[in-house]
Amino acid sequence: MGFVSLGCPKALVDSEHIITQLRAEGYDISPSYDGADLVVINTCGFIDSAIEESLDAIGEALAENGQVIVTGCLGVNAERIRAAHPGVLAITGPHDKEGVMRAVHQHLPPPHDPFISLIPPQGIKLTPRHYAYLKISEGCNHRCTFCIIPSLRGDLVSRPIHEVLQEAENLVKAGTRELLVISQDTSAYGVDLRYRTGFWNGRPVRSHLTPLAEALGEMGAWVRLHYVYPYPHVDEVVELMAQKKVLPYLDIPFQHASTRLLRAMKRPGNVERTIERIHAWRSVCPDLTLRSTFITGFPGETEEDFQMLLDFLQEAQLDRVGCFTYSPVDGAAANALPGAVPEEVKQERQARLMALQETISTARLARHVGTIRQVLVDEVTAHGALARTSSDAPEIDGVVHVSLGSDLKSGSDPRPKLAVGEFANVWIEKSDTHDLWGRVVK
Ligand code: SF4
Q1: Which residue minimizes the CA distance to atom 6 of ligand 1?
Q2: What pLDDT score does 93 carry?
Q3: How far is CA 403 from CA 185, 372, 382, 389, 432, in A?
Q4: 43 pairs with which residues across the strands?
Q5: Of all atoms in ligand 1, which is nearest to the CA of residue 227?
Q6: Which atom of ligand 1 lies closest to the CA of 268?
Q7: What pLDDT is recorded for position 194?
Q8: What mean pLDDT is reported for the chain?
Q9: What is the pLDDT of residue 412?
Q10: Tell me, what's the pLDDT at 406?
C-alpha cells in the first residue's frame, strides 16, 4: 500500500490512524508507487496552493500507479477532484478512517490472516443467528439514586452512527431477522455527539434516535427498541412504529408512578404526563406494545405511593411488566435515604402489583385471539414451533406456541415445515397471562 500524507498536523494524525489500521489488518506500506497495489492520498484543502499540491499529488499517483483513494480535507470537495481526476477509486472527507478502510477493503481485500479471517464481518455473537443485540451507546448521563452504572461505566458515549448502521447491515446480511437496540438510555443516543450528522451509504444521517431508528427500519429486519426513556422525541419514534418502519414495541423502565418517589429516584423523562402520553401513543399506533419494570419498597415508599402505582397500572394497561423489590446496591445514593421499607412489605407489594398486572396482561393478550399475527420462529418443536410476535422480546416476554395448519403437514411426514429464523403468519386461537397459542396459516 502506498501512502501520501499532505497538510497540517491534524491531517498527519489522521494519516497515522489510517496507517495503524492498515498495518493492524496486515497491509504493508510501500515507499514507492511501483511497490504498491493501491495508493491512499490524505489531502489538504485549506488554501489554493495546498489544493493545487493535493491535485498534483493525485495526478502523479494516478500516472505512476493508477489505483488511488483520496481522503482528507479536499475530499469534501469531491466534484473538484473528480473534475480534475475522474479515475480516482473513492473519495472520503477528513477524519474518516472507516470510510477509507471501507474503500480499501472494496478495492484491495485484506490479506488472509488465520486469526482475523475466522471472525465474520458481523463479529462474534452469542445470540442465535436470527436475532442480535445492537448496542448504540455506553454509559449514562443520569444519576438515578438506586443505580451505580454511571460510576462503573461513566457518562454516555454514543457510537458513531455509521458504525452502528454498518454493524446492523453486516448482521442483516449474515441472516439476522431482528435487531434489538440496547444501551443504558436509548432515547439519549447522540446527545454527547451533539446529534452531529454522519454519513451512511453516501447519505447524511443525524446521530439521533429518530433517524437511527428510521435507517435501521429500512434494512428489512424487525427493529425493537429497549430502554427508551419518554423524552419528547419518542413521539416521533412512535410515528415510525405506526408507519411499520420499526416494531410497535416500547420498553420503558418507568420504575414508579409516584412523583415524589420518582424525584427521590432522580428518574429521567417527564414523569408527570406519562398517562397522557401513553394514551396519545396508542391513538397514533394502536398496535403498540408497552413493556416496563417497576420497583416496590424504594426507601420512603408509603402505602399511598404504592396505591398511586397500582392506579397507574390500572390506567396505563401496560402489556408487559416486570417488578423487583428494592435492594440496596453497594455505592448507590439511595442507600442513605430515610424510610427503609421492611422486606416483607416490599414483597407483599410486589405480589399485589403482579396480581393486578396478571389480570391486565391476560385481558391485553386475549384481544389477539381470532386475529392473524406475524411471528418469528425461535425454536422448532415436535408439534410445531415456539415463536414471537412484535409484542414479545426474546427471553423476557411471552411466546406463541405454534402448531401447523393441517394443509402444511405433508402426508406421512409429521415434521414441522417451519424453520428457526423464519417468519410465519399465525391464526391466534388461545391466550393466557403471558403466552399465545395458534396455528400457521398460509
Ligand atoms: S438511567 Fe438507567 S443506567 Fe442511567 S442512572 Fe438511571 S437506572 Fe442507571
Answers
A1: 144
A2: 85
A3: 38, 14, 9, 15, 16
A4: 72
A5: 2
A6: 1
A7: 96
A8: 90
A9: 43
A10: 56
In 3-state terms the chain splits into helix, strand, coil percentages (rounded to 5) of 35, 20, 40
Average pLDDT over residues 113-122: 58
C-alpha distances out from residue 28 to 4, 88, 109, Å: 14, 21, 13
- For ligand 1, atom 2, which residue shows the shortest CA distance? 184
Identify which of 140, 148, 293, 295 to mutate to test ligand 1's pocket (most ligand atoms within 8 A of the CB).
Answer: 140
pLDDT band at 413 (very low <50, low <70, confident <90, very high): very low
Residue 330 pLDDT: 82
Residue 238: closest CA among 292, 279, 188, 285: 285
What residue ranges line ligand 1, CB within 6 angstroms? 140, 142-144, 147, 149-150, 184-185, 268
Measured from the Cα of 141, ligand 1's closest atom is 4
Contacts of 327 (CB under 8 A, 6+ apart): none
Query: What's the average model confidence in pLDDT over 339-347?
Result: 97
By most ligand atoms within 8 Å of CB, the mutation choice from 137, 142, 155 for ligand 1 is 142
CB 379 within 8 A of CB 386: yes
Distance from residue 266's CA to the centre of ligand 1 (Å): 9
Q: Please choose, from the candidates 375, 395, 403, the residue with its C-alpha nearest in 3D space to the C-alpha of residue 387.
A: 375
Half-sphere exposure of 59 (CA within 13 A, CB side): 9
